[in-house]
Every structure is written in C-alpha cells, then in structure tokens.
Task: structure prediction
Amino acid sequence: MANINDIARRAGVSVSTVSRVLNHHPYVSQLKKAAVQRVIDELDYVPNRSAVDLIRKETRSFGVIMPYNNNQAFDQLLHGILNRSVERDYTVMVLPTKYNTEKELSYLNKLKNKQLDGIIITSRANSWDAIIPFTKYGAIVACEYTEHPEIGCAYMDRYGSYLETFQILKDKGHSHVAFTTARGEESNSTQLTIKAYQQIFGNFPPEYHIKDCYSIADGVRAAQQLLQSELNPTAIYANGDEVATGIYKYARSIGIGVPEDLAIIGQENQPVGIGLELSTVDHQLVKVGELAFDLTIEKSKEKVEIPYRIILRQSI
Amino acid sequence: MANINDIARRAGVSVSTVSRVLNHHPYVSQLKKAAVQRVIDELDYVPNRSAVDLIRKETRSFGVIMPYNNNQAFDQLLHGILNRSVERDYTVMVLPTKYNTEKELSYLNKLKNKQLDGIIITSRANSWDAIIPFTKYGAIVACEYTEHPEIGCAYMDRYGSYLETFQILKDKGHSHVAFTTARGEESNSTQLTIKAYQQIFGNFPPEYHIKDCYSIADGVRAAQQLLQSELNPTAIYANGDEVATGIYKYARSIGIGVPEDLAIIGQENQPVGIGLELSTVDHQLVKVGELAFDLTIEKSKEKVEIPYRIILRQSI
DNA sequence: TTGAAAGCGCTAACAG
DNA sequence: CTGTTAGCGCTTTCAA
Result:
C-alpha cells in the first residue's frame, strides 16, 4: 500500500504539499495540485485512517451503548442515530452490554483511549457516578433524563406518559391495574412506572408488577401469573407491544375478552401492535435517537424532551 | 492525558519496558513490572488506540454493510454478528447504505484505509465485480451465496426454501399464487424468488409480482392491488411477516377469509407473525450472522449454508 | 506557495 | 532482562 511519501516522491513534491491537496488547503498551485492528484489516482491512494486519527486526536466516530440490538426500542433509537450519522459523515459503533457493568465500563474506556469521540447511552447498567468521570474524555449523552449537568439528554417524557396512561385507565373505570417491566428497580423506566402508578392508584400488591418482560413469551408468562391468581386485574399496562401481544394471546386462549374483560395497552408502536390493533404509547424513539446524535456532535449538555403519543386502538 | 513516555519516566524505565508490561510480554522482572503497573494505575493510563492500530496495522473491528437497521431481517443478522463480536472482543461498525452504490463503495474503502479489518455484507447495491477488488485489503464475507472464490459466504438456502414453499402451496391446490419482494430484479432474493416460482408454476402475469414491500403499509398496498383486480390469487407469498400482516389485515377488512379464501405465508418468523398466527419461513438469520462473523475473523472464503425452517401456523 | 522537520503515541528489532 | 532507536503514516508549524 502506497503511503503519503510515495505520493510525494512520484509527484515530485514534499509530503506537506500532498497533505495540503488531500485536505483541500488553499495556497497550492494548480500545477502541483494536479500533479499530486494524478499520482493519487494512479496509485489509488487513500490516507491511512489510524495515522490521521492519531495526529488529529479525533476519530469522527461515536459509540452506542445498548443492552442488545434486535429489540424494537433499541433498534429505533439506533435507527435515529444512524440517520444523522450518515448525514454528518460520522461512523457508529454498536456496543452491546447485556447490562453487564464491566462491559459497559470497558466501552466507556474507548473514550479515554481515543477510539471514540463520543458515546450515546440508550440504557445503562452503571450508576451515573461511575459514568460521569468519563465525560472528561468525550461527550456522553443519554436517552433518558438525568439531572447531572455533565450529561446531555435526549429523552422521552416517560413519567408524563406513564401518568397519562394510568389516568386513562382510571378514567375508564379500572382500579385493578397490573403492569410489566423489563428490569427491576435498578432501571430508570421501572422506577418511573412505579412512581406514576402510585401517583394515580396509590399502593399496589407486589403481584401486580411482573418483571423480566421482553418478548411475546414473557407476556404469556405474565398473563398466566396475573390471570390465574385471584388478583383479577381488569387492565394491564405492558412495557412493550410484544409483551402486550403475549398477554393478549394468553387471555384470548382462556376465553378472556379484550377489551371487555381485560384492557391491554403496550408501548413503542411496534408492528405486532399494529397487526393486533393493540393500543400503545409511542415514545417516538427514532426522533430521540436523532436528537441524541445531534447533542453528541455538538458536545451539548442540554436536556431535550421529545413528546410522546398515545395511540388508542382496540385493546382498551 | 498521559502517554507511554510519561509512564516510562515516572516508573524509571524505558518505554519498551512499559510496552512489554502493557502487552504481557515475558521477560520483565517482577520488580519493574510492579513499578510500571503502579504508575499506570496511578495515572489511570490507557494506550492510545489509534497509535496501536497504526503500528499493528489492524483495528480489530469489522463493518456491517446493511441497507438500514430497524428491520427484522437485518437486525437479526446484526444480532448474530454482535453475539460473536463480544465473545471475540471485536468491535463492529454499522454501515447503512440505503442501497446507495456510492455510499457502499465509500464503506468498502474503510478496508483500504485500514479503518476496518473486515466487512460483512448483509445486502448490497454494487455488483460483485465492483466489490471484489476490495478483498485485497481485508476479508469480505456475504450473507448470500456467490460463486466468487474471493468471498466467504454464510447464507440461507433461499432458493431451496422458496421452492419448498411454492411446492407446499401447489400441493394445497393453489395455482393462482402471487408474491411480494422488497426490491426488483437487481436483488438476489428477488431473482431467486422468481426462479423458484417459475420452476414450480411456470410463467406468471407480471401483476402477480408486487415490489417495494417492506412494511405493513406496503402489505396493505400489495393486497389492494392484488385483491381488487380480476387476478384473484388464492395464495400470496410475502417477503416478510410485516408485509404478510398488511395483506392479512386488508384481506380481513374486505371480508376475505384467511386461509379459506386466501392463503398467506411470510418470512423470518417475526413477532408480528407469531401474534397473528401467520405461517412463515424462518431463515434463521441470527445464526447466519454468527457464522458470517466467524468466517470474517478467520478470513475464510468458505461457503456455509444454514438450513431454513418452514413454520406452519394458521394462515395457510 | 513550498519544504524541512518535529512530532502524534506506540511497537519491535537490535544490541547489550 | 532492559534500553536505544527506528519507524508506522500522517499534519502542522516554521522559515524560506
């Protein structure tokens, strides 16, 4: 592979001149510029990216911390991020953690070792206190709200949407309302769900909260636990449309009508919810992702809230 | 930020010794090793990745060319790739093309400029002839079959699965069978679909082939075109479960029974298909992704076929 | 407008 | 076992 010296030699100029034409600097004579360009084309030369990054001290690439991909919510966020990255000619690295704190820290280290200019956190395993020291090495923006002034935030109004959803349920006459979440109280969304729930309905029996829900199968399991007990919830707020689907299918399989006997509402407006006419709250995650990227590239520490939309269909 | 010279100086050793402990080389006295490690910890030092990549001439990172993410098929492939990349401590860059040939070539260039050690192509816009020259600079593996000996392939047996699916439809007595595809004949999958179709049913009116189908909405559009004409297909093979869902919903909305009046079968075993009990052919794309990664890391040019599974549910 | 030269931060002969 | 030194391939003063 040819390098900049080869180009310089064959074009009969110095490496600085080659560098200048490479970077479109002014003050290069047309003559030399043409000569250099000819050799570049001839040798099909492109500058070594590591060398450029090393001296420029930036890589024009961002990392995206997510527990895993192939999940509607995270893929929507990633999609938004990719939209913008293409426009701005940045490159994005996917950093899957499975909520492993060590792994997550090792990814944050890529800021320190100058492999990444910035990191977008879609969901995290570590505490902010563990994360914030890394802001010294590059922009860190989160897809959730946090007070910390070091962290830019592009977030959906989770608390507001939960409040409104529970209120709708209450207004429809439901008082026995159960809900599902992905993780336990270590998760921000779970905390907000519980807080909003209590705000509207007051305390609840712990059996009304089903954790570890990610997939259709988890929804089935949740429904089994909820519907076979004497808890008799009349409504369930699922943490995603796939989970809602599992609940719906199980309910129907044992002859429970939706929404007559059981109201179901999911989240994120996924295809499966559209297919089954499930009501849902759309947190517009693609937009959140796009904004998160914008904040990162601007090294902004702003807190920007994206509005949610509640979509009422047949299941409530 | 401290660099290797700072560490060497403060530890009272040479940079080579620091480099040795960094890279776990043998033949470093316990004493010096400890001294170096102490300073490293003290200064919270990590080696600059660009410098290391520059001299090592490798980055331990792969790129994944895909038209876009947030699509069940590509996200499954990516998921498989990420699974393995975490295990092997590689990093992956997502390279979304929207099937733009220029963009795709610019990504392939990242092999040449040493930004990437290898690239996995999940779907492509360029011809192989345009792509193959880049194999000189790094491993390129595809998630589709190609004869070219320079390209490793981890692929699903598309042709076989299409053949079997059409045969099943034929065996069930269908002779008026329509189908949808994402792209036109520039796409490998589309070509194989048509070839398999003709193999089983012979030629077909061009109206039986609906293109540009990606989403539920596209499925609705396809169904409108197909069901309102006098073509009267009795079965439709959709190129994905979301498209199948759109077809299903539209059919139901105009009083057409599934499967009595219309058989529908989709692809990729997506959640929405599970929810609606749609039959599907699962190409096991997560496995394909995992294998593609393995081939890339081994710089293998093997052709490995992953078996498909036809999942019969209620729609056929 | 141009080139020489000094790095960027690291690895790996090579010599001791 | 350890240090010296020569790069890796590029950008950017600085002086001309």
Summary: Residues 13-17, 20, 27-29, 32, 51, 54-57, 114 of chain B lie near DNA strand D (CB under 10 Å from a C1'). The domain at 158-282 of chain B is CATH 3.40.50.2300 (Rossmann fold).
